[in-house]
Amino acid sequence: MTRESDTGARPSSDAATDEDDPTLVLPDEIRTQLCEHARAGTPEEICGILGGTFDSDRSQVSSAYPATNVADTPRTRYRIDPEEQLECFERLEATGEEIVGFYHSHPNGPSRPSETDVEAATWPDRSYVIVSLEPFAVGSWRWRSSGAVDTRSESGGYFERERIVS
């Protein structure tokens, strides 16, 4: 597998390309940080929290906070350690940042939400960035609590693709 750091190449993006779609501004250095975290955590899924400036249609990431995956089956699921999540939320509040979203990896799957991801999503309008290692790609999705597009959960929510820009 070719690695970003080996060639300077960026991972492909599964994000939508329509200019009307929601957008996540993800600086290259933070994208690289997420990819390195995903590689280091293989074969388990990694996870973390994204901070910055939140907007329901265009958010700006300015920080990434890696967290411990405490899922019972971390090779196929993620669950952010609740204590670390609370500490991170307090840090974000103290620095004036907002919760932009969350990230995790799919070591052997695509950079789109799995059925498990759909069932676990709870933060409306936040970004869920997924780093896939096989194939190497980064995708981002907005969790919407109502409506009808892409992927649905029994609760009526769905993930909507979003563009990633640097």
Automatic annotation (TrEMBL):
State whether keyword Endoplasmic reticulum applies.
no
Keyword line? Hydrolase, Metal-binding, Metalloprotease, Protease, Zinc
Cross-referenced Gene3D superfamilies: Cytidine Deaminase, domain 2
What CDD domains does its record include?
MPN_like
InterPro entries, per the entry: JAB_dom_prok, JAMM/MPN+_dom, Metalloprotease_DSAMP, MPN, VirAsm_ModProt
Key word Lipoprotein present: no
* Residue span of region Disordered: 1-24, 147-166
According to the UniProt entry, its GO molecular function terms are: metalloexopeptidase activity; zinc ion binding
Which PROSITE patterns does this entry report, sorted A to Z? MPN (PS50249)
The UniProt record lists the MPN domain at 23-152
Q: Superkingdom of the source? A: Archaea
Single Gene Ontology BP term?
Answer: proteolysis
Any Pfam family matching the protein: Prok-JAB
- What PANTHER family has UniProt attached to this entry? CYSO-CYSTEINE PEPTIDASE
Provide the protein name. Answer: Mov34/MPN/PAD-1 family protein
Species the sequence originates in: Natrialba hulunbeirensis JCM 10989
